[in-house]
Write a structure and sequence with these properties.
Elements lengths: L5 E6 L7 H14 L3 E5 L3 H5 L3 E4 L26 H14 L3 E6 L1 H13 L4 E6 L15 H22 L1 E7 L6 H10 L3 E3 L7 H13 L5 E6 L7 H11 L4 E6 L11 H19 L5 E6 L2 E6 H7 L6 H10 L2
Parallel strand pairs: 1-2, 1-4, 4-5, 5-10, 6-8, 6-9, 7-8
Antiparallel strand pairs: 2-3, 10-11
Helix pairs in contact: 1-9, 5-6, 6-11
Bound molecules: 6-O-phosphono-beta-D-fructofuranose.
């Protein structure tokens, strides 16, 4: 069986709370099992720029509670090219690194899959880390819980002022291709409507629902719009609604990158630790080109191929149906 000796760890793509607990678990599990561990800065960019350093148990002291990623992250275009990958491979070989844990979302996994097919002698395990919660193979991804809690806290505050002024707020939350945060936060905050990339909402229908809410004596209304919704963006939607729903004073808030920061929740700390631990154990057992995920509270391993191509992530139908009914 392939025996690994030196393990590299990196975070790539959008940072997510829970990445640091995961790095800590990878480093300490690797060292406990007799591996050398190397931290790679700025994701795939660090592989290309040979920006790496030896890590020990003390390199990851007191980081469980930190948001962001101590390894830093980047979206690296050069790694998408054959030349970039070759440089990365040569750097890894020169360092004697024979296995990688890559923590990130679908872009990160796409790179990992291509790289691992080209250079199968470097074993690769993925850990799903993205606030978007949109990877097949894990019910939850790192950062989703913390980001959702951050959004809920923010929307609760907006509800206070919306209610005080009898206003209608349109609030944009993150999720380029995913309505996961929007849907959960919508249920938590009793949003009057939730606009998702996964489900088309006709603006006429939205207007009718908001008017019905007024008729039912709602003093304030909150419409959550996921970034990836197909209706043309939150300002455009707000303008179209304002023309028809005259009684409400309409405001727009874009929550933006505050959703990505903050101390990881207890859930994300446990998830990061479990997934990091499991990724290293899987590499030691000879796994490669796969990712570790959480399914029904058990660690499950899914091939990167399957995680990326065969299945589309789906939002919970019952939450969508329930959210509409509970906000009448
Ligand atoms: O993938 C996570 C995410 O936060 C998306 O929800 C969002 O669309 C994107 O990253 C924003 O990326 P950037 O920080 O590079 O603008």
């Amino acid at each position: 069986m392939y025996k690994i000796t030196k393990l590299g760890v990196l975070t790539s793509g959008g940072d997510a709370p829970g990445m640091n607990p995961c790095i800590r678990a990878v480093v300490r599990t690797g060292i406990y099992n007799g591996l050398q561990v190397v931290g790679i800065r700025k994701g795939y960019q660090g592989l290309i720029e040979n920006d790496m350093y030896d890590m020990g148990p003390r390199s990851v002291s007191n980081i469980l509670n930190l948001g962001g990623t101590i390894l830093k992250t980047a979206r690296c275009l050069e790694f998408r090219t054959d030349e970039g990958m070759e440089i990365a491979y040569q750097n890894l070989k020169a360092q004697g690194i024979d296995a990688l844990v890559v923590i990130g979302g679908d872009g990160t996994f796409t790179g990992a899959l291509r790289f691992s097919k080209k250079y199968p002698d470097i074993h690769v395990m993925g850990v799903p880390g993205t606030i978007d919660n949109d990877l097949y193979g894990s019910t939850y991804t790192l950062g989703f819980d913390t980001a959702t809690n951050t959004v809920v806290e923010a929307i609760d505050k907006i509800r206070d002022t919306a209610d005080a002024h009898d206003r209608l707020f349109f609030i944009e939350v993150m999720g380029r291709d995913s309505g996961a945060i929007a849907l959960r936060a919508g249920v938590c905050c009793g949003a009057e409507a939730i606009l998702l990339p996964e489900k088309a909402t006709a603006i006429d229908e939205l207007i009718e629902n908001l008017k019905a809410g007024q008729h039912n004596k709602k003093s304030s209304s909150i419409v959550i719009v996921a970034e990836g919704d197909k209706n043309g963006g939150v300002y455009d939607i707000a303008r179209r609604v304002q023309k028809e729903v005259k009684v409400y004073d309409i405001k727009v808030t874009i929550l933006g990158h505050l959703q990505r920061g903050g101390s990881p929740s207890a859930f994300d700390r446990v998830l990061g630790s479990r997934l990091g631990y499991a990724a290293v154990k899987a590499l030691i057992k000879g796994h490669t080109r796969e990712m570790v995920g959480l399914q029904a509270n058990y660690i499950k391993i899914t091939s990167l191929e399957e995680a990326l191509t065969e299945h589309e992530f789906k939002l919970e139908e019952d939450l969508m149906e329930m959210a509409d009914i509970l906000s009448i």
